[in-house]
TrEMBL record:
This is UDP-N-acetylmuramoylalanine--D-glutamate ligase. It is found in: Cytoplasm. The keyword Ligase applies. Its EC number is 6.3.2.9. Keywords: ATP-binding, Cell cycle, Cell division, Cell shape, Cell wall biogenesis/degradation, Cytoplasm, Ligase, Nucleotide-binding, Peptidoglycan synthesis.
Amino acid sequence: DAAVISPGWRQDHPLVVQILNSSIEMLNEIDIAWSLRSERAPQQKWIALTGTNGKTTTVEMTAAILQAAGIKAVACGNVGDTVIDALDRADPYDVLVLELSSFQLHWAKQAHFDAAAILNIADDHLDWHGSFDAYADAKFSILDRCEIAILNADDAPVVTRANRFTGKKVFYTLDTPAPGEIGVVEELLVDRAFVADPQEASMICELADITPTVPHSVSNALAAAALARAINVPHQHIQSALHNFRPGRHRIELVHEASGVVWIDDSKATNPHAAAASLMSHLSVIWIAGGLAKGADMEPLIERCAPRIKAAILIGADRGLIEAALIKYAPKIPRILIDTPSDYIRGGDSNS
């Protein structure tokens, strides 16, 4: 007998504990797909990435780059199709680009990647993992069966854990790259890792090719470029794909502009790390914030971003955590708390 676990189930759930302590085999979708690969698409390459933020944008960037190079590739996993659906085709893909969450990585034990990237690690899902270290360990497990690690040199939690991986490491940075790295020189993204002479640099693209041209978008582009170079995609295809790429909905998305006010939808920013990237991309923000903190600490976010916040409109279950941080670090910022209407119905005609 075997049980297939949905990745969101916690390992301490009584039913999960019962199965783990029994003779029943615990399976997961990623490993099932990997076992099917040898039968359905034995030549197929898998590359993967994880991180607290930027996963979907970067995995879609990477797939777009491969497609521009004439490679039959698709983004899958935690975005789009499941890995099994992407694999189970009469005409198989050449490459699967997997977005993997910490939940999926916690359970996966078999899948092997030609290259894997870790974009960043910040407080998120601590209510599920129990601690930041356990969350970070789940993220870093993506490198357990990986040929080349692509790592963010600008992210301290990634850098401090990088020595866990003893294989080939390629760091990327928004600064000037050292030999063996990918980074930014003046107005160019450059490659000093996947080149014949690491003392020289090859141009990947111009900063102006990245839309929006904000730091975290450029960082995502560097990671996507590194994954593509790890499987020998030429630079010119990377530039053309990045020039044409636009992020998906709800990611610093321009909704409306009138009377000097720009309305931005960044509702995919569901943790402090993502919220900070969004807030720091603008000089003066009326911030609508709230929802579930998932165990994350709001104080570092407010301490860093307070100079950019003109006013805060707070909603949702954990709005009090944000308000407390504002009172502590930025008491002069106006705060407006919005109560959920007593007649609110999820999915109703109007949620105003």
